[in-house]
Amino acid sequence: MVMPGLVNVHTHLAMTLYRGMAEDLVLQDWLNKLWPVEEKFTRPQTTALGVSLALCEMLRGGITTALDMYWLPEIAARTALQAGFRLGAGPVFFDPPGADHLSQPQRFIAAQAFFEEFGGNPMIIPCVQAHGTYTVGPENLVKAFAVAQQAGALFQTHASETRGEVEMVRKQYGCSPVEHLHHLGLLGSTTVLAHCVHIGEDEIGLLAASGTGVSHNPLSNFKLASGVAPVVKMLKAGVKSGLGTDGACSGNDLDLWKAMRMAALMQKTIHKDPTVATARQMVRMATIEGAGVLGMEKQIGSLETGKLADLILIDMNRPHLTPLYDVYPQLVYAVGRDDVRTVLIHGRLVMQDGVLLTLDEEKILAEMGAFARLAAG
Ligand SMILES: [Zn+2]
């Protein structure tokens, strides 16, 4: 079967470096464990290695576009270009000292350098990455948003991932993260919010009315026990919603087939209603709706004349995919990433019959093994 490539609307690619390093912890302890390690190992070479491994994994799983948020975005973008992968990436804004050691003024210079290097490149979707409303103050959030607007870039931030985060923001600003962003004028059609787990009806209304995009990351949310996002309500209200894997430290893999299945099952369970979160809706979220979150729905996300050729071929002639009565439930409840055989991005063949053509997978795996021995030591 041929279908559009999957669109992963939230991830932290280079975090494959630390996959499995901090496990079974609450979010704050998890961050406290990972941040010092990132501080130590965030260098161009290791970042390129982490991104390369993530690209191998995503291509094998039929993902052809991803929106990354991580340190050294220029390394991620260069690595993606070499591999022929379509990547959303861009300058990071973060108030505490970051693993990239940039001062606040340097962040603005780095942003301009990023846009100068990658602006107009059809394979790079520029996106300013402000970590969250609890890690970036209002003044810098507004400035980061202005940088994005000026460059014609997207603006992404984490919002309402955990109850703790919502309480923290409420205490500081007297409102929820989504309301805070709304008051600052930062919601809109070029804004992407990761998670939106703990949001109410009013906030869903704000997201729908402003055309703000949301990334739902079921695996990360369940594993970190963050909660269950009101996906059915958001879809009903017309909120632009895509699916993400989040980083390999929280997910722990970059598998959108699993995300589709988990999202559907969880919504059906909490609503006690098997008719909600349909297979068709999940496939749309992983393709055309995800493309819409990135402002790319006219170029990618569906098989239509005149669109860019981001295509995947799936081997449907397998025991677990037989017989085939309806393609949508098969894709969500039965297909796995190992069924993806061939991948084209922007018309270029990047995986053919299970062989990656633009990445030296064997070398990447060996280098990652060596890195893990160093990091664990
Ligand atoms: Zn995230």
What does this structure look like?
The protein is an alpha/beta fold and 377 residues long. The protein is built from 15 helices and 14 strands. The chain has helices spanning 27-41, 44-60, 73-83, 104-118, 138-151, 163-173, 177-183, 201-210, 218-223, 231-237, 256-271, 279-286, 288-293, 327-333, 361-376; strands spanning 2-4, 6-11, 63-68, 86-89, 92-93, 124-132, 154-159, 191-195, 213-216, 240-243, 311-314, 340-345, 348-352, 355-356. Strands 2, 3, 4, 5, 6, 7, 8, 9 and 10 form a nine-stranded parallel beta sheet that branches. A five-stranded antiparallel beta sheet has the order 1-11-12-13-14, covered by helices on one side. Helix 4 (104-118) links the parallel strand 5 (92-93) and strand 6. The longest helix is centred in the N-terminal third of the chain and has 17 residues, at 44-60. The structure holds zinc ion. Zinc ion is lined by residues 10, 12, 158, 194, 246-247.
Give descriptors for this structure.
377 residues, alpha/beta, 9-stranded parallel beta sheet, 15 helices, binds zinc ion
Compact overview of the structure:
This protein has 377 residues and is α/β, with parallel strands linked by helices. It is built from 15 helices and 14 strands.
List the helices and strands and how they pair.
Blueprint: E1 2-4, E2 6-11, H1 27-41, H2 44-60, E3 63-68, H3 73-83, E4 86-89, E5 92-93, H4 104-118, E6 124-132, H5 138-151, E7 154-159, H6 163-173, H7 177-183, E8 191-195, H8 201-210, E9 213-216, H9 218-223, H10 231-237, E10 240-243, H11 256-271, H12 279-286, H13 288-293, E11 311-314, H14 327-333, E12 340-345, E13 348-352, E14 355-356, H15 361-376
Parallel strand pairs: 2-3, 3-4, 4-6, 5-6, 6-7, 7-8, 8-9, 9-10
Antiparallel strand pairs: 1-11, 11-12, 12-13, 13-14
